[in-house]
């Protein structure tokens, strides 16, 4: 895993807007969703990149965590 560490403020910078990459945090791991078509523009089914989305993926996502295995890990998320 990368040595980069993101808190809420740092992660929010990676919202997929204005040329920024799109990152999301799930269970303490930060993933890069920039190249995922479904996350175009930093948005995916009402969810926004640059946020911690563990509850969303566990409770509302039809695909669950299985999609995470194909995403690049860019760091860890700390509260």
TrEMBL record:
<dbReference type="Pfam" id="PF00173">
    <property type="entry name" value="Cyt-b5"/>
</dbReference>
<protein>
    <submittedName>
        <fullName>Cytochrome b5 domain-containing protein</fullName>
    </submittedName>
</protein>
<dbReference type="InterPro" id="IPR001199">
    <property type="entry name" value="Cyt_B5-like_heme/steroid-bd"/>
</dbReference>
<dbReference type="InterPro" id="IPR036400">
    <property type="entry name" value="Cyt_B5-like_heme/steroid_sf"/>
</dbReference>
<feature type="domain" description="Cytochrome b5 heme-binding">
    <location>
        <begin position="6"/>
        <end position="78"/>
    </location>
</feature>
